[in-house]
Amino acid sequence: MTATNTCIVGLTWGDEAKGKIVDILSAEHDVVVRYNGGNNAGHTVAFEGETYKLHLVPSGLFHPNVTCIIGGGLVVDPQVLLQEISDNEAKAKGLRRRLLVSDRAHTIWPWHKKIEALSEKHLGKGKIGTTLRGIGPAYADKANRVTAIRMGELLRPDHLRPKVERIVRQKNEVFTKVFGDEPLDPAAVWDEYVAYGEQLAPMIADTTAWLLRALADGKRILFEGAQGTLLDIDHGTYPYVTSSNASVAGVWPGTGVSPRVIGNILGVVKAYTTRVGEGPFPTELTGDVGDQIRKQGNEYGTTTGRPRRCGWLDTFAIRYAAAVNGLDGIVITLLDVLGGLPELKVCTGYTVDDKALEAFPSDPVALGRAKPVLEALEPWPDDISGARSFDALPAAAQAYVHRVEELVGVPVRMVSIGPDREQTIRRD
Ligand code: GDP
Ligand code: IMO
Ligand code: MG
Predict the structure, then answer these.
(1) How far is Cα of residue 43 from the mean position of the Cα atoms in its chain?
(2) In which band, very low, low, confident or very high, does the pLDDT at 428 lie, cut at 50, 70 and 90?
(3) Which of 23, 29, 43, 141 is catalytic?
(4) Rounded CA gap, 315 and 72, in Å?
(5) Cα(297)–Cα(315) distance, rounded to whole angstroms?
(6) Which of 37, 108, 245, 376 could staple 249 via S-S, CB 3.0–4.6 A?
(7) 3-state secondary structure (DSSP) of residue 186
(8) Using alpha carbons only, what angle is made at residue 75 by residues 72 and 79, rounded to the nearest 5 degrees?
(9) pLDDT tens for each residue of 349-387
C-alpha cells in the first residue's frame, strides 16, 4: 500500500479481526488513532508466538515509531486504560511517551456501569446484550451534557468535586428509588478519579490540534474503527447496536479530522459472519455447522468471553456496509476457519414473504423476518493457514474470494488465514 491515510472499519457486527489488520498496516503509518467506542472493543494482535488483547489503546502500539491516539469520540474508563498501559508497556516500548488521550474524550464512571447492569437485568429477554462496560450510559450523558465529564476535567480536581457530588446525588435517586439498589459514595469516587487523572495527566492533550499539525507535516495516519458498520448507532441494526458511529462516519466527530484526507478505506470482514449479543441475524446457523464454525474459529468474545453466534457470509449486508462506508477495498479474515466444512454457502440477498428486498432493511422487525437467499459454493478440505500467496490457496478458496468480490463489487486487498502477522496474503 502506498503512503496515504487509511481507515480500517468493521463491516458487520464487530470482531472482524480489525486489530490484526491495524497492527500490520501500522508499519506503513506514523500515527494510529481510535475514533469510537471504548473498552467494549476487544482487538487481538498476535506475533512472535504471543497474543495481545487490547480494549482502548490503538492496535499500533507495538510499533515503536508509531504515535497512538485515543480520539475525542471515545468513552474512556480510566482504570481500564491505566491497566492496559501497564500490562503492555514491557512489549510496547516507550508507550507512555507516544500515547495521547484526547481531552475531549468522555469518561466512564461507576454509575454508568451500575445503571447499565440494572437496566439490562430489568429488561430481561428484551435486553440489548451489551458488554456491560458502561458505554451506552456514558454516551447518553455526553448527549445530555450536564451529567457528562470529559477527560480534560480529570485534571481539575477542585472543579470536579462539586460536579461529581451533584451528578452522584442525581444518579443515586435513580439507584435507590427506581431500582431499590445501593447508592454510590461521591467522595470515594472523586478520590479514585483524581488519582487516575494524576497518572494520565502527561498523556491528556488536545489531540485534534495534534492530528491537524501531524497532517500538515505529512504524517500518515491510520484511523482504527472499533465494532462494525452494522453496530453503528445511525447506520446499524438499531436498536441492537452500540452507542457510537462505528462506520467510517465516526472519523470526523471522533478525531476532528475531515474524512476527505483518507485515501484508502478498507472494510474488514470475516469469511463468515458472527454476532455477539441480541438482535436479528438472517444468516445465523444454529445447528452443527454453526457449532463447527464456532469451534474452528474459536468464536468466543475477546471482551466478555461470550460464545459468538455464527452464520454464513452475508454479502447482502456487506454490500450495504461497503456503500455506506465508500470502501476502496475489502480485507477477508479467518478464511482458514472454513476449511473442512461439509458445505459452504454465501447469502446473496434477502426475501420477506417471498419477495426479494432491494435494500438492507432499516427496521429490526423486517430484518428479523428476512430470509437469506443462499448460494452454494465448493468447500475445500485443506488447512490453508500455511499459504503465503494467493496462488498457493486451493482453487475453491480462491473461487470463494473471487465470488465475494463479484457479489460486493469491491476488490479484496488482503486475505488473512491465521491470527499471526505472518498469516496474511496481500493483493495490493
Ligand atoms: P477485532 O475486534 O475486529 O479486532 O477482532 P477480535 O480480536 O475480537 O477477534 C478476531 C479473532 O480472530 C482473534 O482471536 C484473532 O486472534 C483471530 N484471528 C485474526 N485473524 C485470523 C485468521 O485469519 N484466522 C484465524 N483462525 N483467526 C484469526
Ligand atoms: P470490537 O471492536 C463485537 C456489541 C455487544 C452488544 C452491542 C452493544 O471488538 O469489534 P455495548 O456494550 O457496545 O453497548 O454493546 O454491541 N459489541 C460488540 N460486538 N465486537 C465489539 O467490538 C463490540 N462492541 C460492542 O455485544 O451486542
Ligand atoms: Mg473484538
Answers:
(1) 7
(2) confident
(3) 43
(4) 32
(5) 19
(6) 245
(7) helix
(8) 120
(9) 999 999 999 999 999 999 999 999 999 999 999 899 999
Q: How far is the CA of 140 from the centre of ligand 3 (A)?
A: 23
Closest atom, ligand 1, to C-alpha of 335: 23
Residue 41 Cα, ligand 1 centroid: separation in angstroms? 13
Q: Ligand 3 centroid vs 304 CA: distance in angstroms?
A: 10
- Coil, helix or strand at residue 180: coil
Domains in the chain, start-ordered, CATH in brackets? 6-102+203-265 (3.40.440.10), 106-200 (1.10.300.10), 270-426 (3.90.170.10)
136 Cβ below 6 A of ligand 2: yes
What's the 17 CA to ligand 1 centre distance in angstroms? 4
List, for residues 283-319, the tens digit of each pLDDT value.
Answer: 999 999 999 999 999 999 877 888 999 999 999 999 9
Q: Which residues contact 126 (CB under 8 A, 6 or more apart)?
A: none
55 is catalytic: no
Segment 130-142 mean pLDDT: 98
15: annotated active-site residue: yes
Beta bridge partners of 344: 377
Protein residue with its CA nearest to atom 19 in ligand 1: 419
Nearest to 224 by CA among 24, 32, 74, 424: 32
Which cell numbers hold the place of 321? 456496509
Please give the span between the terminal C-alpha atoms of the chain, in angstroms, as a whole number: 6
Atom of ligand 2 nearest to the CA of 131: 12
Cα three-residue angle 247-251-254, rounded to 5 degrees? 110
Rounded Cα–Cα distance for residues 277 and 309 (Å): 8
Residue 2 has pLDDT above 50, yes or no: no
Tens-digit pLDDT profile for residues 224-246: 999 999 999 999 999 999 999 99
Q: What is the DSSP track for 227-276? A: S-GGG-TTTSSTTSS-SS--SGGGHHHHHS--GGG-SEEEEEEESSEEE-
What digits encode the pLDDT tens for the residues 325-340?
A: 999 999 999 999 999 9
Helix (H, G, I), strand (E, B) or coil at 416: strand
